[in-house]
Specification:
Blueprint: H1 10-17, H2 23-33, E1 44-51, E2 57-64, E3 71-77, H3 91-101, E4 104-109, H4 120-134, H5 136-139, E5 141-150
Parallel strand pairs: 3-4, 3-5
Antiparallel strand pairs: 1-2, 2-4
């Protein structure tokens, strides 16, 4: 199967960077090719929640086990060029940051292209952020202290 056709000006530039980016390569990346084996910490509790929208969006909340009260929040959008990756990519960094900084981490599992074209991923991230703000009290988050981070597509 051939890679999808892109704008003629982009084809040569992308071919030089990733000459064989095919659906097979995409399948390999999605098969946890971006997330290695992780040893997760017992110092962080991870819970998944579903944001009610059409279609639903899953968010993973990372909270230090020994934390009390409302904490600042770091809302993270994973990388992967909008075609690969998952909220699991944030698990290791949230395991380190949440207890060390005394924060709650929230990661969003957004829909991936090409199956879900633009702006699906952006819509999912916005819905997840709005949900986080609306549910801040229940999540133990200080709604006035929410920061956003991300790499690649998430940045």
């Amino acid at each position: 199967m051939n890679a999808p056709e892109l704008h003629p000006d982009l084809d040569p530039a992308l071919a030089a960077i990733v000459p064989d980016f095919t659906p097979d390569v995409l399948s390999q990346l999605r098969g946890n090719g971006l997330v290695g084996e992780q040893q997760l910490s017992d110092a962080v509790e991870r819970t998944e929640h579903t944001v009610s929208q059409d279609p639903p969006v899953v968010v993973r909340v990372h909270r230090p086990v020994d934390a009390d009260g409302a904490l600042p929040c770091l809302f993270s959008i994973h990388g992967g060029g909008y075609v690969a990756g998952s909220c699991a990519m944030d698990d290791s960094s949230m395991d380190e940051l949440c207890p060390k900084l005394g924060i709650v981490g929230v990661s969003v599992e957004y829909r991936l292209a090409p199956e879900h074209p633009y702006p699906a991923a952006i819509d999912d991230c916005e819905a997840a952020l709005r949900w986080t703000i609306a549910n801040a009290t229940d999540l133990g988050i200080d709604a006035g202290k929410i920061g956003i981070t991300g790499v690649s597509a998430g940045g």
